[in-house]
Amino acid sequence: MLARPNQMFRRWRDRYGEPFMVTSPNGQVVEVWEPATVRRVFTADHDDFAVFSPDSIAILIGHRSLLTIAGPTHRRERKLLGPPFHGARMRAYGEAMIELTRARIAELDAGSSFVAMDLTQGISLDVILRTVFGVDDARELDVYRTVVIEAIESAAPVLFFFPALRREFGGVGPYARLVARQRRFVDLLKGQIERVRPQASERADILSMMLEARYEDGEPMSDESLVDELRTLLLAGHETTAITLAWALYLVHRHPAVYHRLREELDGLGESPTPEAIAHLPYLDAVVNESLRLHPVVQEVMRTLTKPFELGAYTLPPGVTIAVNIFLAHRRTELFPEPEEFRPERFLDRTFSPFEYMPFGGGPRRCLGAAFALYEMKLVLATLLGDLELDLASEGPVEPVRRNLTMAPRGGVPLRVVRRRRPA
Hints:
This protein has one domain: CATH 1.10.630.10. Helix content is about 50%, strand content about 10%. The chain has helices spanning about 5-15, 35-45, 55-60, 70-80, 85-90, 95-105, 115-130, 140-155, 160, 175-195, 205-210, 225-255, 255-265, 275-280, 280-295, 325-330, 345-350, 370-385; strands at about 20-25, 25-30, 50, 115, 300-305, 310, 315, 320-325, 390, 400-405, 405-410, 415-420. A five-stranded mixed beta sheet has the order 1-2-8-5-3. A three-stranded antiparallel beta sheet has the order 4-12-9. Strands 6-7 form a two-stranded antiparallel ribbon.
């Protein structure tokens, strides 16, 4: 299940139906994906659930992150952090997203080859460093890129699923390497907080907004919470956005009719469209949504029960985890006919409820940065397809494989540049 959970989910669904229970190293997990059940989970009292195995993800994002806290503390933190990721503040970063994409592809000319995941990770990381962390000095950017990539690459999947391996063993082994690299990353973030703090009121990056934000009692966030939330934004906003963009590039170029329809829509905007004009394109929106449906970056949304929960004929006791299985929910044939096919038109023909389509989770713990991520995905994808004509370097199908806590395309999707549509 570690390497190929999608295959296991299909097999268990076909054998047992819904729900089915999985015994994991972190406890019993009941998988559900029927919309009415998903609604019950996502609309239940927030305090009926605890975070599933928080120590497993705290090694990457700390114990003060939105992803590892629950109850009143979670509600208080989420209310404080919400504004920078919505509305005009978020849209102010559109030009930077396009500029950073073009900077990354400036040296790609006809005949060049590259791996989509490498490119999209670089773009996504640059966007976060500029718009979230507020790093804009060229030398500092190089240091951050190195430290961040090392921190991410040190996160071996076995460390999340097998608690017994989370030991340093005298400073040797994968966990010791992860701890050392995470410590270096945390030290870097602490230094950035101290540099930004004196000018926070005059800056527009998200870190500055977090430094200026105040809880209802007038208190600011602690530096410890700031560090953990920044680590979370990196994990949730860097890898996930990069992976979806790589899948989108693969799927669009594997389906010529989709590619030509999307190209027509993009060309219709003219030479220098605004970020807002790009973001409101209906077919581009459908392409991104269908990429997320077919290949959700995270397969499950997990809630650990603190009270008994009625599930059909069953009463689940406290301590059991309910997992809303996004992968299977997105493959219900009555909602998504021929669910394994890439058909962006699904999202033009109808609107799906948040209990039918949920690439960013749902309920009070839905991904805080969902709007930011969708905005970035659309602008980056439009810029890549607008500036470059590409084709797939390999004709074979690409399978999803485990990458840390996410699922990514095996091989990263190799691409070739046919020609530049716009000069660098």
